[in-house]
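Let us work through a complete example step by step.
Step 1: write down the sequence.
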Amino acid sequence: MSQEMARGDLAAAATADLPRRSPWIIGAAWDLLLFIATPLVILPVLWMSRLSFAPDAIYAFVAAFGATGHHLPGLMRAYGDRALFRRFRLRFTVVPLLLLGTTLPLLFTELRQGMMVILVAWGFWHGLMQVYGFARIYDAKRGDHDPRTVRLDWLLCLGWFGAGLVNSDGRVYQLLEVFHQSGGPLIGPAWIDGVRILCNCGTALVTVAYLVHLLSRRAAGHPPNFLKLMTLAISFAYWWYAMVEIDNILFGIALFEIFHDVQYLAIVWVFNRKRVDGDPNVGSFSRFLFRRSASMLGLYVGLVIGYGFVSSLQQSISIVPIQNILIAVVWTSTLLHFYFDGFIWKVRESGTQAGLGIAEGDTSQETRPLSDGQIHAAKWAPFFLAVAALALSQWFVAGLNETRALRSQRELQRYQHLVRVLPRYDHAHLSLGTRHYAEGDLNNAGKSFDRALEYSGQLNAKAHYNRGLVDAALKQLPSAIKRYQRSLELEPLSNQAHHVHFALGAAYYSLDDHAAAETQYLQALAINPRFAVA
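Step 2: predict the structure and record it as tokens.
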């Protein structure tokens, strides 16, 4: 006991000798708004936006101007920091060409679906590592660099983010769908259930170990870092809410993406502001942009939104080769963002610490390599192995020389398999129903749509619309009209609203109610004036 008290006294004395620093990155109010409690602001704003915009439209905007746009600050750091560029010149020049040369050919094959699996997996890793990075920043602000705490922080982030991912039927469905479409083998329900059980149990064990570690550290005279714990708790809860609790997977992704983007844009601004004030090697562009000026802050946000315009531009171009090139550029930008952020913002780096107000002095001459040579090259192995595996799988599928009928049958079997894997996920039944409907199997299509409505609590607008199409095909027009009307009540602003109005008009027309039919056709045209059939 006396030895423990002596160690505690020594630790207290060492802490007393350290210069006192603020525990905040900016200040209490700004940290809570931009880094910690940001979801409390995002949630009401996005829920209010659903009154005027469809979830698909919200996701499209966030994906273009947020998800893609926020790549720009990292690229500014990579190519605008002279010392950093000299240090990693090879990575900043060779890797972009390598990634562009890898992604562009994939667009002309079915592997474009497989690339989405890679992007989602790497994006998941990137998101959890950003939260982990903020945990390390808040500990570093207190001068706490305990190795066991560092490891447990990382394991806790991995566990809770992983649990949120695997327990999300929508996210698992999305991953399995594109994996199967790109030629990947069917994964049985037992494997998915096993992964969920393993991940949940592992997360529970890590959480218990983390709490025990906090108590033991507190007993040794190291009180918990409540700012860090608040950051982790809110981030985990928000991730779980966005992934598991939100029915519309696109809206859930948009919820967390905005949180991620706000954190990233704010920390990059703070970092570069400090560098402009204290680092003589800052490039002229960075010195111009990152000044203490509201107009420069507005220009910074404007440049980010402008860069995101590239992502939305490809959707408005009908020339396929140009569209593919733009998609490849966006993919390359995304991969570079994930890759560069893995080493240019390391909190253990003295230059990063200076930019975050953790360390003092001129740290612009950092020369210690993070990871170079064969070790760093080996870290690319998972990416290229994944691309190679998908290419081999696609080559095998192409070698089957299937007829169109056999290919359609195999696609139907894939969606039947997804229903077996996720039997209570309404969208799985909806997708299977659309395949049955396309094949002219109205009986099974109706059953699938009914199950989709059952598991959604009768709240799936698309299932109501598609069930209405089946009823109309079976000449059950009054039932079809009720289905269409319910679909419009649930999602009056959806991307398919003009199709629903048109189908409703067609049903009224078949019942000789021409006035009601005309009203619906005009409503469809009001939503989409170029809807030629209306």
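Step 3: interpret the result. The chain has 26 helices and no strands.
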